[in-house]
Structure formats: structure tokens, C-alpha cells
Amino acid sequence: MITANRAPAQPRRWQQLWREAVTDPLELLGLLDLTDRAGELLPASDTGFPLRVPRGFVARMRRGDARDPLLLQVLPLAAELGEVPGFTRDAVGDLAARAAHGVLHKYRGRALLLATGSCAVHCRYCFRRHFPYAAETAAANGWRDAVTHLAADRSIDEVILSGGDPLSLATHKLAELGEAIGAIAHLKRLRLHTRLPVVLPERVDAEFLDWFGALPQQRVVVIHANHPREIDAAVGAACRALQAAGATVLNQAVLLHGINDDADVLAELSERLFAAGVLPYYLHQLDRVAGAAHFEVDDARALALVDALRDRLPGYLVPRLVREIAGAPSKRPV
Ligand SMILES: *Cc1c(COP(=O)(O)O)cnc(C)c1O
Ligand code: SF4
């Protein structure tokens, strides 16, 4: 075949936007007219979990507002350095739950596959910020161990692609994995845990939807938005497109001090999600991971907030308040 005259492969728009993400905290402060806050940043020498945020997400932040709830989710602050008793590096027992290379099998019937360690955004409260991803993802081992584990255990009927963010992978990589999973007859459902439709909705492109919509399994997508202002028209359209491709779309949020620990904010989040056809699923109590203590909301206040939601929203718009406990057979109600 003569290929010399073919147009070069089009760089995919989402991949270009990914590469253009803001990674310099000073640039981020500059974009938001907040350079006077530079003294509050995590020292640049701390490179363990660097800033990363797509420019489209930055565009949803308010200029001049150092307390902006979207900004606070991504800005590396010196407050992360304080050591707080009870906040550890492996807060949810992931290392112990490793069932095969890149597979976490904690709960009956569901296995979670660490498809990749990459995320388009780095959330400061993330419970996996210290997880040894590069070595532990299923991709690093060509899916082999992971798929062998899933195939050998007939009690597993749902596979959850997680990470990191599974939609960080190019669609052809997802298709490769999907094909291996598709060969396992006892897997009825495929679930994606992804923040990309929220932080970089361009990821939900035609190529992805063509692949996703043609999968034989029932499909569930659990997105992750914490504040109503994360959901703009483009995010809503991405959620609708996922539904049109046959997915049930749910949201999980993390309850975060100073970001969404407010009944008005949580109610508006549920309303905006539902306007995009998305149901609230979980509201997580923070995993006690080192560096995230300043985001914690105590249980009494968390319960009061959910009670307030119950008083003002239909039941299907009230998320389940849960906490992950290492070794427990499911996420536990608070
Ligand atoms: C959260 C989680 C799941 C999914 O739990 P659901 O309650 O089904 O949403 C599955 N496996 C692991 C390891 C998890 O952490
Ligand atoms: S997108 Fe999810 S996995 Fe990635 S840093 Fe944020 S919370 Fe963690």
C-alpha cells in the first residue's frame, strides 16, 4: 500500500488540550490575578504530586477569588505539608487488596482494574496520590495478569476501569483492553470511573463514542464532580453523549471543607447533574490520606448536610454518604 500521500494522522484535539494543561502554579495564579498568593504555595522542590489542570477547567474558575472552589481542588498549598496523626500514605488498604498486577479486588462481584496511573487533573485530596502507579497499572504489564485474574474468577460479573483515569488512555488502547475483557463471558457489566468528562469533556469524542457505544456489556460511567460550577454546557453535552451511547451515568463527589460542605452547594450540584441526566451516587467522606487533612469535614457535620439535602430534594437526588474502610466488604454508610 502506498502511504506517502496520506495526510498525517490528525492529532486528536483532546490529546492536544491534555498536553496544554497548566502545570506551573505561578502561571495558574497569574491566569487568575492571584499572584499575591504565591507565598501560600507548596514549595517548588516538592515534586511528588505536581499541579496539573486543563485550561478549560481553569476557565470555570473565578478570577481574583483565592477561595474559588474549583481552584482549591487543584492548587498545591503549603498546608499539605503538615503531618496530621491518622493521615497516612495508603489510607484505604489498596496495597493489601491487590489481587493481580493492576487489579484491586475488595468487593464481591466487582473487580477494579487500574488501567493507567495518569489523570488529566491532579486533585489535591486524592486518596491515590501516593499509590505506586507506574509499577502497578495493568497497562504496564500488557493487561495479561489482570485479564487472567478476571477470567479465572467467575464470581466477578462487573469490571471497573479506574486508575488514575482510564480515559487517559488513547481509544485504541481502551479497545485493546475491551477486546480482552469481551472474551470473558461472565463479565456482564463494564464500568468506568472517570473525571475526564468533567475536567476535559473534549475527551468524549466521536472516536471514543463509536467504540464505547458498540460494546456488548451493559455500561456504567461514574463521573466525578464536586461543585456545581464544574458542570458547564460542554460537560452536560458529554454526559448526554455517554447516555446516548447506552451508559447509565452517575456521579461521585468527595465532601471537601471549604469547597462543597454547604447544603446550597450540594443541592445545586445534584440539580445540575440531573439537568445533564446524571444521578448522584456517592458522597464520600474524605479518605485520610497524608496531605489532605485540611479538606476533612467531621461526620456530625456531614450527616447534618445530607439531612438538609433530604429535606429539600427528591430522594433520587440525595447521594449516599459513605466512607471507605480498609478491609470492609463495601463502602460503609456514615
Ligand atoms: C469503590 C470500589 C468499588 C466499587 O464499589 P461500588 O460500591 O460498587 O461502587 C469496587 N472496587 C474497589 C476496590 C473500590 O474501591
Ligand atoms: S481524577 Fe480521580 S484519580 Fe485522578 S487525581 Fe483526581 S480524584 Fe485522583
Structure description:
- The chain is α/β, with parallel strands linked by helices and 334 residues long.
- It folds into two domains: 15-81, no CATH class; 95-333, Aldolase class I (TIM Barrel).
- 29% of the residues lie in helices and 15% in strands.
- The chain has twelve helices and ten strands.
- Strands 1-2-3-4-5-6-7-8-9-10 form a ten-stranded mixed β-sheet.
- Strand 9 and strand 10 form a beta hairpin.
- Helix 11 crosses helix 12.
- The N and C termini lie far apart (62 Å).
- The relative contact order is 0.12.
- Residues 119, 121-123, 126, 128, 164-165, 195, 224 line the site of iron/sulfur cluster (SF4).
- Pyridoxal-5'-phosphate (PLP) binds next to strand 2 and strand 3.
Write the layout of secondary structure elements.
Elements: H1 13-19, H2 25-31, H3 55-58, H4 71-74, E1 98-100, E2 103-107, E3 110-114, H5 133-136, H6 144-152, E4 158-162, H7 171-182, E5 189-193, H8 196-199, H9 206-213, E6 218-224, H10 233-244, E7 247-254, H11 263-275, E8 279-284, H12 299-312, E9 320-323, E10 332-333
Parallel strand pairs: 3-4, 4-5, 5-6, 6-7, 7-8, 8-9
Antiparallel strand pairs: 1-2, 2-3, 9-10
Helix pairs in contact: 11-12
Bound molecules: pyridoxal-5'-phosphate and iron/sulfur cluster (SF4).
The site of iron/sulfur cluster (SF4) has 10 residues, from loops.
